Amino acid sequence: MEYQTGMEMNNQTNVVPLDRFSPETKTCHGKDYPTFLDGFFTQFGESYFYAFVIQFILVALMYVNVGKGIYWKVLFYASIAGLVASILENGTVASICRESQQSVSKPFSLIFLLIDEVFWIASEYSIPYLNLIKMKAFARGKLALIMKCTIIGLALPFIYFRFMIGYQRMKKGYLNDTEIKFYHGYAFGIMAVADLICTFGILYFVKKNNSHAELTTNLNEYIKHSSYTILLTVDVVSALLSILNIITNIQKNDIKYLSTSTIPFHCLKSTFVLILAVDAFLFKYGAHLTSVQESSGSKSYGGNDSFYSYKNSGSYKPRGPTHSIDMTGKSRQKAPVSNITPFNYPPIEKDMYKSNKMDSPKMSNSKSIIKNYTHIQTNSTLYESPIDKHEVYPQQQFGFLSTQHRNYQ
Predict the structure, then answer these.
(1) Contact 99, 28 (CB under 8 A)
(2) Where is this region: Disordered (predicted)?
């Protein structure tokens, strides 16, 4: 009995308390920064930090040029939240890892690790919310309302676990240990559940609405060819992050090779907002192209490095010369972003289309075969044969990318 007690005391004396300079905490080990700026700039080498910086830049560019509607606003604000959270976390690390702070056990700047969680919550839980917006574009009825309330309700335990992460970091003075990783696993698990609910909801309502009018065809095709892959990627990554964070801490001595397996998934999760932004951008491109083809009839688009040529594939010949639409020319006057297409077409000059036959009464009654997407006044006689009867379709609104949203009924 005395021998066992002696062994227990010996084991307790061998336990080394963790601090921010311990290798296990992945905070200040090997980081003796002479100044704050030196440490902050060095932290740019961390892939997590740089990922949020480049994500904000790219999402901001897409938002300013083509973004419109609640979906794009959430993407933009989520990228800002991720950038601020990353700056606060890495700035705190740069502060507490300075040479002058080595003798200070609990630097005051650790409080920013708790404040930081406000921005991490906004950045990370924006993914389920974005999928909810996507589902609301065509979801109706009691089931849709239940799913909405469930996803919003899951935000509460997610917020709790994220604040526990920040509190433990502030209290202990470092970023990682077994307890903090457990909280990460629980938070990722809640995100995975919320994403799975959105995925099944989208799949269900898309299947239910497949027989609806032709107006929903483009949205369904987008969901089928693009969003399925994105949704499944988000679900799988969140689920694997949750499972691996928990398993590697429960059985860390048995499966040491899994201790670093969460890194690639965590890096991928850091760019979820950028992935969804690119996905929405491609959808808007495809929707615009479809609208052009429907309103213009059967057309072929060829191009080189400087322009795409617009050619008519009809059996008739146009009465005027063939023109090319310059895709790279600069406008003399900058048009408002809300009134231009994603392709930034240059203004159409009326003088380009003047010909000797413009004054013909027969030509004056003809309609343009080219839909005016830039809302620029042009001459209505664009060399169209009077026998042509091309139906001009109204501009379509594509669910979550439009400014008008539908409420649950």
Answers:
(1) no
(2) 312-340
Report the pLDDT value the prediction gives residue 340, as an integer from 0 to 100.
Answer: 40
Q: Determine, yes or no, domain membership for 189.
A: yes
The helix/strand/coil state of 100 is helix
Tokens of 335: 């048009």
Alpha-carbon distance 56 to 53, whole Å?
A: 5
d(CA 262, CA 245): 7
The pLDDT, as a whole number, for residue 15 is 61
Structural domain contains residue 230: yes
> Is 198 a member of any domain?
yes
DSSP letter for each residue of 174-213: SS--HHHHHHHHHHHHHHHHHHHHHHHHHHHHHHHTTTS-
* Contact indicator for 245, 224 with CB cutoff of 8 Å: no
How many structural domains comprise the chain? Answer: 1
131, part of any domain: yes
β-strand pairing of 324-326 with 307-312: antiparallel
- Here the contacts of 311-317 (C-beta below 8 Å, separation 24 or greater) are 312/369, 314/388, 316/385, 316/387, 316/388
CA torsion 369-370-375-377 (nearest 10°) is -60
Written as one string, the DSSP assignment of 322-362 is --EEESSPPPSSPPPGGGS-TT-PPPPPGGGG--TTTT-HH
Q: Tell me how far apart the alpha carbons of residues 232 and 187 are, in angstroms, rounded to a whole number.
A: 18
Model pLDDT for residues 123-156, shown as the tens digit of each residue? 999 999 998 888 887 777 888 899 889 999 999 9
223 burial type by CB count under 10 A (0-12 exposed, 13-18 middle, 19+ buried) = buried
Backbone angles phi, psi at 312, to 5 degrees: -95, 130
Q: Which domain holds residue 148?
A: 20-289
Residue ranges for the chain with pLDDT beneath 70? 1-16, 210-228, 251-259, 294, 296-409
Q: What is the CATH number of the domain that holds 205?
A: 1.20.1070.10
